[in-house]
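Propose amino acids for all 400 sites.
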């Protein structure tokens, strides 16, 4: 069970994740990389104990009762390689049965790291997308893709995008964990559902323009269609009280609902969806290793929150476009939306968790453009490339 450097990854972490235009043999290796990451402790991981599992998709756990054991899939760890405090996780798609592959090819992976020298422990979760057909002749035809940067249908461009990269906190393991993890009997470790909570999560933001030289404000709205995906943050605790954000789970809106918010003029709009989290306990031989929370599905609830804070100020010639004609501007591509505190979970575990989503034809942000509101600015770049977009009134460039 000790992680070894896989022969196919002998070139090292940096080489593997940097491949774009590569020979077919190296592309096949790249196709096996599910995700990469780094622990926050400056220590080598080459002697650490890794475990890797896949969780069932929401369709399989929808009716899971509290106290019921979760049938996790144990995966080989021979594909995990390390380089200092960084790691690369490679998984052969053939090792993942269809039962563990959810909507749009999403697979929820969980990984543990135990460092015997420091008695350090880390847990994290990462969703990845399996692209390609099981019957494909080419080994590289089935590969892993980042859910945020790949299309939900799965396309060849997924191979040219980098796999997800996550940061993991290595904290102190709970009492008794060392003995339980270093030499556990194979049948003693289990994951049990112990509860669930529904939470509101911000999945988008809108910033309509002020009246400016006119009398009316601008308008914004968002769509969240059936099939859209949102990645929700996960969290773990080893002592039962102090929680830490760690990893995430991508959730596909497959509950059969579409929602388009009505046009809104509030200057600071938070678009929210309700998401269901499961709480799990993981123990080995009666020793509780961790408790964790992961998003499993959206409930179908949505709402709008008008934030009291002033809207941001992103006015800049390098981030804005001015004098646009009348019409409807809709964002369907570009940098993914993200919000570090998007999931309002503080009342449950003491911290909020992150949200992120890609802009697609089913997950959009729109502004009504007219003579009085003819400018758009992005938070980091011009609107098509930015993750968030703000509307401004006409002649705003005269204030620069």
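Proposal:
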């Amino acid at each position: 069970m000790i992680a070894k450097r896989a022969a196919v990854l002998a070139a090292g972490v940096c080489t593997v994740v940097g491949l774009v235009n590569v020979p077919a043999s190296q592309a096949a290796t790249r196709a096996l990389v599910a995700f990469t990451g780094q622990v926050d402790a400056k220590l080598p991981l080459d002697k650490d104990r890794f475990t890797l599992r896949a969780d069932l998709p929401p369709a399989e756990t929808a009716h899971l009762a509290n106290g019921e054991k979760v049938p996790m899939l144990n995966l080989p760890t021979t594909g995990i390689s390390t380089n200092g405090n960084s790691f690369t996780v490679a998984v052969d798609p053939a090792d993942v049965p269809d039962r563990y592959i959810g909507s749009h090819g999403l697979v929820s992976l969980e990984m543990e790291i135990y460092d015997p020298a420091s008695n350090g422990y880390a847990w994290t979760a990462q969703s990845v997308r399996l692209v390609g057909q099981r019957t494909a002749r080419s080994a590289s035809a089935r590969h892993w893709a980042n859910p945020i940067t790949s299309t939900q249908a799965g396309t060849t461009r997924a191979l040219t995008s980098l796999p997800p990269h996550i940061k993991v906190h290595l904290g102190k393991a709970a009492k008794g964990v060392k003995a339980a993890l270093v030499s556990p009997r194979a049948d003693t470790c289990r994951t049990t559902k112990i509860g669930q909570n529904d939470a509101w999560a911000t999945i988008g933001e809108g910033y309509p323009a002020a009246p400016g030289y006119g009398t009316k404000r601008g308008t914004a709205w968002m769509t969240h269609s059936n099939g859209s995906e949102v990645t929700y943050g996960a969290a773990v605790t080893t002592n039962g009280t102090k929680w830490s954000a760690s990893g995430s789970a991508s959730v596909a809106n497959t509950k059969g609902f579409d929602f388009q918010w009505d046009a809104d003029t509030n200057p600071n709009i938070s678009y929210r969806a309700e998401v269901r989290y499961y709480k799990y306990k993981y123990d080995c031989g009666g020793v509780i290793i961790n408790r964790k929370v992961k998003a499993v599905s959206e409930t179908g609830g949505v709402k709008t929150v008008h934030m009291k804070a002033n809207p941001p100020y992103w006015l800049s010639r390098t981030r804005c476009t001015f004098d646009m004609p009348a019409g409807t501007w809709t964002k369907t591509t570009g940098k993914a939306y993200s919000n570090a505190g998007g999931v309002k979970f503080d009342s449950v575990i003491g911290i909020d968790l992150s949200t992120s989503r890609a802009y697609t034809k089913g997950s959009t942000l729109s502004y009504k453009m007219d003579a009085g509101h003819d400018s758009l600015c992005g938070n980091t770049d011009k609107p098509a490339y930015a993750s968030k977009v703000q509307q401004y009134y006409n002649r705003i460039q005269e204030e620069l």
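The first strand starts at residue 33 and ends at 39. The CA atoms of residues 28 and 137 lie 12 Å apart.
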